Amino acid sequence: MTNSVSSEPRKIGLISLGCAKNLVDAEILLGDAAKHGYQLTMDTDDADVVLVNTCGFIDPAKEESISAILDAHRRRLHGAKAGQKLVVGGCLSQRYSADLAVQLPEVDAFLGLDEIKNAGAFFDRLLDDEGENREEGPLMAVSRRAAYIPDFDTPRVRLTAPHTAYVKIAEGCNHPCSFCVIPRMRGRHRSRTIGSVVKEVEGLVRSGVKEVNLISQDTTYYGMDLWEIKAGPRQPVDESAGPGLPALLDALGAIEGKFWIRLLYTHPAHWSDSMIAAIARNPKVVRYVDMPLQHIHDDMLDMMKRETDRAHIEGLIKRMRAGIPGLTIRTTFIVGFPGETEEHFESLLEFITLTRFERLGIFTYSREEESRAAKLPGQIHGATKKRRLREAMMLQQQISSELATSHVDEELTVLADTSQFGRTEGDAPDVDCRVHFSRPVESGQFYRVKVTGIRGYDLLAKVLGA
User: Fold this and answer.
1) What pLDDT band is residue 242 in, cutting at 50, 70 and 90?
2) pLDDT tens for residues 119-150?
3) Bridge-based pairing state of the strands 49-54 and 85-89
4) Whether pTM exceeds 0.90
5) What does residue 87 show for φ and ψ, rounded to 5 degrees?
6) Cβ atoms within 10 A of the Cβ of 463, count?
7) DSSP letter string, 186-249
8) CB neighbour list of residue 81: distance below 8 Å, 6 or more residues apart
9) Side-chain half-sphere exposure of 154, counting CA atoms within 13 A
10) 38: region left, alpha or beta (phi > 0 left; psi from -120 to 50 alpha)
11) 3 state DSSP class of 435
């Protein structure tokens, strides 16, 4: 029986893991499935297909993904809909589908990153081809090299709150970071056109979205692949050579309506004074930059193949803070990278102390197979990694508390995520701090508040008005 004559719509149960980029992939996948009559259900036991949208970036993420796959299989053995199919998608599927097909015979099908645009037909085939021989293994749809990128009219089933959305402006990565295998999974960098992004954002704003989060593997590389002249590492970037990020921010800033534009996942190697000026002159672009630095000692940056050095980073941060008053910088660092000595680690702590980042996260190094760093000598013991993580986070906790306290008695604009709490322009969805309101408000709206105190990393505030 095909879906076209089914008495009721087929249902997809989604378990989506990983980053916002993976979430957008899930939205696109569901959008194509919806064209084929599928509906999303929050009850995976009632689903015809359960899709685990995996993350394959670092070991903890891979372990979480495998655990979710096995848990989904166990659930369908006890009370799930008869004939339910288990599908694995996302980065883990793209990277390891051949191996997982052997190691996880519980899985009925694997879907690659490029195949999300054809998910509906894939699910139809999985459910309808009852006579197909499955003894040789699961149904596979995984291309060797990812090359797909969405457009403004790509169907999506949005999974975020109605007032916030992620917009993928590019896909893939050209950076050679030695600890990372994302280019192997997602291919080389490829940008959308400015017109495509603008049309998507215009549609989102018309639908009531108040916050547009621009994402890609490296948003600062946006448009460079379209240029005839490429900028090399540590060389000045000339945005006049092509449709770069400043031009995109100007175009988005001209869209009518009251909404925020947030820039996520930037790389320090491709920042420029033109980009700083573009943020400063566009009031819709929030004064917030997410810029993972990974380390600060030149030895570590060189071994990580980060294309920057300490002098470049320090000079960049100085120019950013001078050029964008009130800027919030979020960054992340890796501790325990191969060869990291106590001297290297102490230099990182010194840098954190001096720079006083508004938002900061620490990760312990994960030894990723097929990465160049996995073969480096001087691998660090796990206990040492954990100790360095604790020390760095204790330092940042003190800095964060002091910075939060400095906001007491300030008036701020906050976007309400729920009736009880919201976020300032210095706080990205899901990863940063909250502002707890003194009274219930309407979610998805902007409010002026006065900060009255702090609670951990969060702020307490009196609502002044919409």
Assistant:
1) low
2) 999 999 999 975 455 567 899 999 988 899 99
3) parallel
4) yes
5) -120, 140
6) 18
7) H-S-EEPPHHHHHHHHHHHHHTT--EEEEESS-GGGTTGGG-SSPPPTTSPP-GGGTT-HHHHH
8) 45, 46, 47, 48
9) 25
10) beta
11) strand
